[in-house]
Amino acid sequence: MKKQEVVIIGAGLVGSLLSIYMSKKGHAVTIYERRNDMRTETVEAGRSINLALSDRGIKALKEVGIIDDILGIAIPMHGRYIHTAEGIHAFQPYGKTGEFINSVSRYELNCRLMDLAEHHGVSIKFNHKCEDIDWQKNEITFHVGQDELPVVPFSLCFAADGAFSAARLAHMLHHNKFDYNQYYIDCGYKELSIPAGENNSFLLEKNALHIWPRKDYMLIALPNTDGSFTGTLFFPFEGPLSFERLTTKEAVTSFFKTTFPDVVDIIPDLADQFFNNPTSSLVTVKCFPWIRDGKFCLIGDAAHAIVPFFGQGMNAGFEDCSILNTLMDLHGDDWETILSTFQKLRKPDGDAIADLAVNNFVEMRAKTADPNFLLQKKIESKLHERHPDKWIPAYSQVTFHPEIRYSTALANSEKQESIMQMVMALPGIEEKWDSKEVEDLILAQFNSHTNNNTLHKQA
Amino acid sequence: MKKQEVVIIGAGLVGSLLSIYMSKKGHAVTIYERRNDMRTETVEAGRSINLALSDRGIKALKEVGIIDDILGIAIPMHGRYIHTAEGIHAFQPYGKTGEFINSVSRYELNCRLMDLAEHHGVSIKFNHKCEDIDWQKNEITFHVGQDELPVVPFSLCFAADGAFSAARLAHMLHHNKFDYNQYYIDCGYKELSIPAGENNSFLLEKNALHIWPRKDYMLIALPNTDGSFTGTLFFPFEGPLSFERLTTKEAVTSFFKTTFPDVVDIIPDLADQFFNNPTSSLVTVKCFPWIRDGKFCLIGDAAHAIVPFFGQGMNAGFEDCSILNTLMDLHGDDWETILSTFQKLRKPDGDAIADLAVNNFVEMRAKTADPNFLLQKKIESKLHERHPDKWIPAYSQVTFHPEIRYSTALANSEKQESIMQMVMALPGIEEKWDSKEVEDLILAQFNSHTNNNTLHKQA
């Protein structure tokens, strides 16, 4: 194998993990990161961000041999813990026993991955902002503090610089047929920290992802290792109940008291946090092509930024790395083939997880408190128990089955949803949901929809 | 009315026309144009481009009092002149008698509009490339040859700099929730000039838009005042028959001999033109928002770039100017209201004409030679004759009815198409297409689809 001088733009989660993969393959890897070294700084208020690490991400971390380093800073979440407006609590397991996702702090994870990257011989240069890329000379111009503009040559470059990728912009602006789509949902988000109780005790159920679904908006909270929870309010930008309208501390407190009464008690400085923490927006990015010849490739959010409602942004990016690794094993030095195959495989999957994530936004905020929806999930869960290889709920396919491609999971979920729509419309379904009649009907429909009676798995 | 210092970016068709409108309203207008003054240059080979000026564009030119200047350089086209693969010719009128579109050279039209703009007191500064816009200071930085970077203040700025608008990029990059979508169709285009015959005679029927529909690709030709025609080949970039594969003069000549035999005879230097003229791509751009406060607005292709298959790109841009003019009359100096109303009205129309144009691409290349399609058009044309206010074919709504909004035309056309699909599936429709039975059926369907039995017109 020919050793490459690999340049990675962005020392975020995907850039750092990718650098470890590339370094283990024997390449010389340098990461250029726009920001300062976050390990030397404290976390910005309201920007702590928790992520849900699940099987696709775990698979990649295992592959590269660093899973034990990471699971040490993760908290298992076995299901959704629903807080209804009526004050009722309900726990919905994510999957079968042993199927769970993991709450992990973006900050801690990123720091750990950078440490591991450097440990694997990767050089990380901070405060290097990608300015432009010369596609003829294969040179990247960076902007460094004090108007330095160093020019870096590359033979192979990965852009892992996130949803607002500067490298993607340089790719786009010098491309004559670049398809590009970015769109924002009508909700923004704001982080609200729920502090730990005495002796770092957890003030909510520890091993769960908490959701307060309220139709047009919702609050969620994920546990941290220190006993605190990171809460996130997803809320419309505009309209009768929106960020635009909540302009005084009184209004915020009163809104929370009415809407999330059990939260007001555990966030003493709620209104202060509300006004001190930034309101952020949520974007989906789809684009094509991701690659340029055999020398440049978008990866992670830079290729496919998605909204966070399936907890798959990071997992999708880590899976990108894993698939790239497989292609390197298959095609050796043939980077034209590696990158074009990567794009061909992953573009439909990137599009699919973007759509799944937007769909799940509707589900999470509007339906997790709806009795019909809960009944539907109960039927599906029972079916899955009885026919574990045939009927896998969409959430499980995406979260616990890395062998099923995102694009296949999307197709499967659309098929399952259309069957369940029909089933939920049956007269008396509330009584007979657990009957053989209903089960047989679903299976007959499922078989008539499917060619080979099994879910399509990843080749 | 308060006199504004208006900056328009781009001296293309829309920028030039807009400058006349603004100047007539009493504002001080300066246009900054990236390129050299085209009036001092000769037309680039393969970049002559003919446009179809129709009623929406004409309405705007009349409003501003320059229609006579323009019609002098236009050639009426009364219908499509179809050249089938079998060598059959057929003429399809565009509308009723007196309804026609006008072939006009982009170059001549643009030169004329710039002359008229200057005549109206507009100052045009050439070789000024928009580099960036400072949205706090309201200043635009331009790049002028020899690395001059003049900074121009503005109180009101219109970006009329086309599909690849630099001003839109400055708007997008400094915006925290900008929806943006650009996508390319799989076909490119190449211009091929058909010279005039002796004494500037026309070698094809003069007053028609010629089409050689061939399913996956097509050739069209529009007349010029000097007897020549500008031909344009719309052709796949990749695939068995594509620009990628036609790599030798022999291959080009042989392809044209087989596919467009009547064209080979009238373009003596066909293969030379094919390789000398550039291959261009076709993009659709949708974005939002178009405006920033009461001081900046995208207009024309910069706001809504579309593919050329409905002949509406320029007409839509001219209509933008006309609607802006109406809003200036209504709202005087209230630019916040003028621009926000403009965006509210025109965004759905820009989206609609973009979709109509892509749909018409399919219709033009695939269907204009299809007997079923021709029969459908014949039925619709007869219906229109008998019920001129009730059934207006989509093409007519878009082309000859500026009082019908694009978004309404799209909704109407979808309704009509679904009715016609049902009608075309009737057994024996070939025989009974002109019967009272069929007419009554269509009208009954139409009425049941429509609330008030008339097409929705523009308020």
Automatic annotation (TrEMBL), chains A, B:
Domain FAD-binding: residue ranges: 5-169, 291-355
Q: Which GO terms describe its molecular function?
A: FAD binding; kynurenine 3-monooxygenase activity
Catalytic activity of the protein = L-kynurenine + NADPH + O2 + H(+) = 3-hydroxy-L-kynurenine + NADP(+) + H2O
Keyword Lipoprotein present in the record's keywords: the answer is no
GO BP terms: namely: anthranilate metabolic process; kynurenine metabolic process; L-tryptophan catabolic process; NAD+ biosynthetic process; quinolinate biosynthetic process
Q: What is its EC number?
A: 1.14.13.9
Please tell me which top-level EC class this enzyme sits in.
oxidoreductase
Q: What does this protein do?
A: Catalyzes the hydroxylation of L-kynurenine (L-Kyn) to form 3-hydroxy-L-kynurenine (L-3OHKyn). Required for synthesis of quinolinic acid.
* Record-given protein name: Kynurenine 3-monooxygenase
Source organism: Flavisolibacter ginsengisoli DSM 18119
